[in-house]
Amino acid sequence: MLGLAVQIPYPTGMPEYALIPLLVIAAFLVGSIPFGFLIGRSKGVDIRTQGSGNIGASNLGRILGKKYFAICFTLDFTKGLIPSLVAGALLNTLGSMDMTDTQAWAWLAVMFASPIGHMFTPWLGFKGGKGVATGLGSLLGVLPAMTLPAVGAAVVFIVVLSLWRMIGVASSAAAATLPLWTWQSFRLYETTQERRFGEQPRYADMPAEDLKQMFEFQGTPFLIAASVLAVIVIYKHRGNLQRAMLGTEPKIGSSSEPTPPAPPTTEPAEPSQ
Known about the structure:
With 273 residues, this protein is an all-alpha fold. The chain has one domain (16-246). It is built from eleven helices and no strands. It has helices at residues 16-31, 35-42, 57-64, 66-90, 101-119, 132-141, 147-164, 167-198, 208-213, 220-236, 238-246. Helix 5 runs antiparallel to helix 6.
């Protein structure tokens, strides 16, 4: 699948330089749809004034229940996935890891636009959620260059969440490993390419080092994007991380936030008898 790109011609008369801004704007607008807020409103609740005040699936689920968490997460995930898939198809990069830097940066710009739209939705005064579900969807849509890293980060998320039951901590841990998964994915691709060429008769006698030099590392744009995305996610969860260190971060399954430890008393001790 790594070498099979989905080929869809550009719209008639639409040059690449005009297509890319349109894709980015469309992805931002799709990502800006505040599904959590809309679902809460349909139930008579303004989730901006409840719980953590976040419009994402986690806060919605904490207020309305697991059913609404699942609905909101799916919708937020989808609004990140679809723009990335459409952009990849129109840029003729979907299903391939071999592309020009221009194509890579264009695709990554669309990938970023959806979660940015979610985090800074213009419909709510440019205030939104933390972009985890939308970001995951947008990553998976950059198929396969960011799909494999997204799956690796998702595994980290599940493991950390199962151990500590704190979504903010799990999201930050998953984001921190994203650049590593991205680097590993492109190294795996290069190794696959080297083996494929090495099996051809005309390259059979070529030394391994010479064959390796034929393939430059193509993942630089994706590695930079993964690092930037990791920083954004961790920054957006800085409050969660601070509360986790203080022991006040709510955990999955808890009915309310833990009560912070009481301050030490300032009353003087009674004199001994």
